[in-house]
Design a protein that fits this description.
445 residues, alpha/beta, Alpha-D-Glucose-1,6-Bisphosphate, Chain A, domain 3, 4 domains, 7-stranded mixed β-sheet, 36% helix, globular
Amino acid sequence: MKRVYFGTDGVRGPYGGSVINENFAARLGLAVARWTGAGGGEVVIGRDTRASGPALEAAIAAGLRAGGLTPVSVGVAPTPAVARAVVTRGASLGVVITASHNPAADNGIKFFAPGGRKLTDAEEAEIEACLPAPEATPVWAGAEAVPRIDAVADYVAALNGRLSAGALRGWRIVADTAHGATCESTPAALRGLGAEVEVIGGAPDGLNINAGVGSEHAEGLAAAVSAAGAKLGVAHDGDGDRCVLCDETGFLLDGDEILAILALDALRRGALPARTLVVTVQSNLGLDAVVNAAGGKVERTDVGDRHVLERMRAVGAQLGGESSGHIIDLSASPTGDGLAAALGVIAIMHASGRPLSALRGELKKFPQGTKNLMVAAKRPLDECFALQREISGLEAELGEAGRVMVRFSGTEPKLRLLAEAGTPEIVSAALERLAAAARQDLDVR
């Protein structure tokens, strides 16, 4: 069954549009209640700092109530804190109202099943099949307030338990919280371990989430780390399920470098279940090389952290993630968790006494480049004949010495191009050839 509304990570779009509005949120709340069949079960709702969040929360809560579920709100909280609360409270469902790294004008809704796991494509299609007709929308305006609970303090305490009390005394760390859901939690966690924390992107006003800050705009983090003489910097996206790091020299580490550090340390300690790291097709080929050399193996999935998690469970792996900074460590969190990833690397730095620049140097990346093209419509790729010819030609030329990948974004009107090869010049030329072919098939804006 094909999904209409759900994309790579929940339902997402411009607030006030045809999908992300109060009426649709109420309908979706009723649909997911019908799908669970868990009359009276509790649903934990969290959100990021977007101005549209409270209204969408009230609307989806009304739909959940109309379907016989009991919503409770954790207010502004990182996505992984909501997933944890689903587990610790034995809830029937978790809901996060967020558009992650998207601009403030967007918003979205995503769900967690019991156990804190994300829904599968099939489950999302089943929920869509339960959507009531628009005229049957539950009344949401002026609905009763959603009871509040505190899940963030428990989340921070659980993650901080991975290091000893006061372990970070004398450490200076810069945290960029993207004016988003981690504004309180990440600084509190780092300070709770004794670190001196400088915060940027920590003054949300409902309209500035991700605006020139956070993991998508980490150049400000690099400058702040260098200026402060900090040991490292941590940057999150708007909902806190991903992170990028900055070493003491101002070098930015993406998800592949973070995964390499975590996987190599676990392999050395004999603590990587199945000796397997799970990544997506977008991760750099250098990751395979370094993990294989250390006696491990790499499994690859389609793009999307829930695909990574599904594969991890299938092969018995504990660690996986994406180059974007979605890092899943099942020993710490049931879903992608930016703070857990950062603390995992910090724990390795603390135990080894090595700076982050030395740890990240173990991964030797293949030259890689990406290009994003805004498109008017997402025409099926198998109908983009010029693009398919160019892809086939490049694959034949590169052989095992590189690769190309072309896909549409699951959350934005973008065509994403990726190339890896032996030199930056080959990468650049491959991207230009792909882009030129795409313009023959698509209306590129």
